[in-house]
């Protein structure tokens, strides 16, 4: 993203674990984790769709492990908090349909190091991935998405702790930050839409968001001058997959940098680390963080591109947005090994 404007407002959104798309992401990742726990070499590409009382599992899985997909999916739904039996979507009552097959042998021959001509683990697909880091937060994340995430997490924490009794799992947050050059100056607007039980007044919901949730989640960035929009359409008692359809991988901007940096288009959830959509993006983020942590730049973006079945990247590009020396940053990035097997080992992605 260019930061040539001297003053501008940037907004990012986040969603809670109970958002229909995030429900699907958690189910897919829970199935992935269950396989990896039994067989670290499992190849998993699991997609999920949730709507009303239905959960559809589809994709390709090759593993020596044995996983009860039905049980894992229900446990994930229960963990999120969809347990009300009077709702179509609840952990015990959903109908789970499965369309899962083995991974294509033609893909496997390019991923399995024992089968490749070069004897190294190749990328599980072609594609481009991006990683980004900025010194504007301690986590080296852009401030708008960082604060949006904090609001979403605090909503979930408050629901589980019973801070208010009427919160339900589905919610979305959005934060607008005013920048001058590369520096965030203040939060101008916050949007919070949270699911709730019926019969709760909008005044009570707004009071909780403005007086309790926001000061805690925003911390030093909270100010009385912030404009708040709370459940702007009015009542939000009917939510989650009972109301809306969820699909895996549909929140890729929420999962990355809130729009502050480009995205290669590949989703993360439900994919083992041989899929460079996930591992490559993670490693680009790791390298971007190292560039910022070591003072090479205040902001850094790393792009990598792969060809399926080939270990070495097709290209690597580093950008610092005028906050560092691009050539020095590119030279620094050469110390990192972007081959899939090296990424998996460096980041310990098979735990």
Helix and strand layout, with pairings?
Blueprint: E1 7-15, H1 20-38, E2 43-51, E3 54-62, H2 69-80, E4 95-101, H3 105-111, E5 127-134, H4 143-161, E6 167-180, E7 183-196, H5 202-218, E8 227-230, E9 246-247, H6 276-293, E10 299-306, E11 315-319, H7 326-333, H8 340-347
Parallel strand pairs: 3-4, 7-8
Antiparallel strand pairs: 1-6, 2-3, 2-9, 5-10, 6-7, 10-11
Helix pairs in contact: 1-2, 4-5, 6-8
Q: Would you kindly provide a written description of the structure presented here, covering whatever features stand out?
A:
It is built from eight helices and eleven strands. By secondary structure, the chain is α+β, with helices and mostly antiparallel strands. It has a four-stranded mixed sheet, covered by helices on one side. It has a four-stranded mixed sheet with strand order 4-3-2-9, covered by helices on one side. Strands 5-10-11 form a three-stranded antiparallel sheet. Helix 5 links the parallel strand 7 and strand 8. Helix 1 crosses helix 2, helix 4 crosses helix 5 and helix 6 packs across helix 8. It is flat.
